[in-house]
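Title: Comparing notes on inverse folding

I've been comparing how different people in this forum approach sequence design from structure. To keep things fair, I'm posting one structure and asking everyone to reply with a full sequence. Here's the target:
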């Protein structure tokens, strides 16, 4: 396992604050001309009941929101570093803390790039400081009705939610713009079988709570000082 010290974590968290304040995260789709770009799949489960009221403009079910996300990059870059095919997890409590786990298939340069691009592409992380960035094994398993992903400290198992016609429920045209990014307005509904985190600083375990799988396609300019 490789991890960043507090100095690096503070820098990443600082980038989140700057970018959210400048609105630079509201960028267009990924292109090779952009200074950073990320295209792929974003899967998430949180502590809210199905379906998450936050996505409809209401407050969270438990008066807080905690969970884990999986980012699977199809193609992307941060500055001159390519991040195609990389995977990362983020475990969080919104407004309080976030922990980023980058798969150990990444080189040190790619891991740095992933830690920097995730807060830009997924701006809800800007609502809380990033405590740690670690390079660890990440496993992903999926079928037509199930998705499992895990890092050493976080484990998630999701099951797809079917509608009355036997087809997966898909939610589209959600009212909350930019939360956590526009692509999540159109997503496939899942429910957690297990969402668990156990680290030296934080612990939670949920089941039967909200989950979704959506696309992410984001791009923009590097923060000041990173160009």
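Reply #1:
Here's my take.
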């Amino acid at each position: 396992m490789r991890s960043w010290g507090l100095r690096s974590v503070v820098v990443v968290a600082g980038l989140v604050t700057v970018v959210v304040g400048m609105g630079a995260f509201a960028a267009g789709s990924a292109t090779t001309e952009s200074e950073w770009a990320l295209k792929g799949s974003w899967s998430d489960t949180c502590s809210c009941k199905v379906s998450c009221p936050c996505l409809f403009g209401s407050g969270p079910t438990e008066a807080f929101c905690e969970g884990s996300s999986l980012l699977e990059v199809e193609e992307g870059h941060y500055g001159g570093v390519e991040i195609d095919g990389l995977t990362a997890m983020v475990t969080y409590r919104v407004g309080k803390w976030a922990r980023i786990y980058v798969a150990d298939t990444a080189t040190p340069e790619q891991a740095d790039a992933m830690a920097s691009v995730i807060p830009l592409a997924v701006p809800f992380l800007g609502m809380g400081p990033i405590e740690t960035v670690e390079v660890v094994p990440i496993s992903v398993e999926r079928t037509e009705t199930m998705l499992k992903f895990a890092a050493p400290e976080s484990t998630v198992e999701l099951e797809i939610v079917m509608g009355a016609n036997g087809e997966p429920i898909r939610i589209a045209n959600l009212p909350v713009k930019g939360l956590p990014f526009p692509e999540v307005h159109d997503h496939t509904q899942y429910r957690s079988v297990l969402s668990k985190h156990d680290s030296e600083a934080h612990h939670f375990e949920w089941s039967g709570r909200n989950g979704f799988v959506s696309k992410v396609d984001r791009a923009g300019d590097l923060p000041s000082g990173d160009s």
